[in-house]
Amino acid sequence: MTAVSPTLKKPSNLRWVSELPATWQEQRLGSLLDEIDERGNDDLPVLSVSIHHGVSNRQLLDEEMDRVVQRSEDKTKYKAVQPGDLVYNMMRAWQGGFGSVTVPGMISPAYVATRPKPGAEIDTRFLELMLRTPAAIEELRCQSYGITDFRLRLYWENFRNIRVPLPPIEEQKAIVAFLDRETGRIDALVERLERLIVLLTEKRQAVISHAVTKGLNPDAPMLDSGIDWLGEFPAHWQRKRLYTFARFVQGKAHEPFFDADGEYACATARFVSTGGQTNRFSTRNITPAKPGDVLMVMSDLPNGRALARAYLVKSDDRIAINQRVCGITIQDGDPRYFAYQLNRHEELLRYNDGWNQTHLKNEYFTQLVLNVPHPSEQSQIADFLDAELSEIGRLSENAASMIEGAKERRSALISAAVTGQIPLADMTEEAAA
Q1: Is the pTM here over 0.85, yes or no?
Q2: Integer Cα distance of 196 and 110 in angstroms
Q3: How many CB atoms neighbour CB 57 within 10 A?
């Protein structure tokens, strides 16, 4: 990039911006925008305002209210909006719930709809990008009212008095074009990395499934299990019910003893499903877990991702098994192998009907039929999986770290551009390159 002369700066009167380019102004939002309240009609799609993606034309999805808007719902109070309008969610403005409208539609009464005043030189896409920066969001939070953060509301009367930095209209458009181009590149990279993580997750499960159902010897004679999802398994393996080689215990309620200073990590469904991330502690341990125990989630919401998750206790971490979680002690074999086989076991997942909360009964575990090779082969399979999954995990962690870095760069780039910290000449040179 060719060197350019630094843009002349002037001190800012805004609390959230220290200095601005000399050609920029500071204006009240109320001098740029009018609140509008035009009635919608059933021919218009319902738009949503996401704290992550701005306004979307994903009809019927209201992401911020965490609910689906039914077609039969009364929409007489919904507001019609047009491309170029700026809308925000009163209850989520302090989290970045802003967006510039790109298609005709209508929005929930929970949103405030605004439109540029006649003759106002304002690009609402530029405003959206600015108002969703961390510094601006903090200013919006300060101007919102409510008892707690989750009840904060930013009313039009307060929003209109907020002052923002504003470059000339042509510069606004140039900044928007620059950011759309550069963030598009970052978003494409993030999308590729997220897809990589999905593929690595699928590979991880495939490697586990093959190892615990087919073994490591591709030339081993096989028998037909008669079970569709299992297919064939090595002929020299046994198939045994869990109660014949393991002890089962159901966790007890430790909620009365929850205490942040408790000495026991409480194995809740969240603890198991997140690989041992502790968020609950107990002062008592009614059902202790021992190293080598396999902890499993017994209850979850419909289609829950925690159901039948397994966690192997690897050390004496003073773990208390809570209700909705069970402990399985392998009495003859390698617990690592069985932890791999038990995790999200197909037969346990079959009890999830997709409509009601699933409660796995004790006998669903104790009567479960598992593949049981010789203990020495169990250890060979567990060693293999430990090594393979460690490498897959390393690749996933690297991708996740790159995603985090890319998102941080994206946020920093937007913040710098919409507050005049990147010279306009640099942006136009990027476009020409």
Answers
A1: no
A2: 37
A3: 14
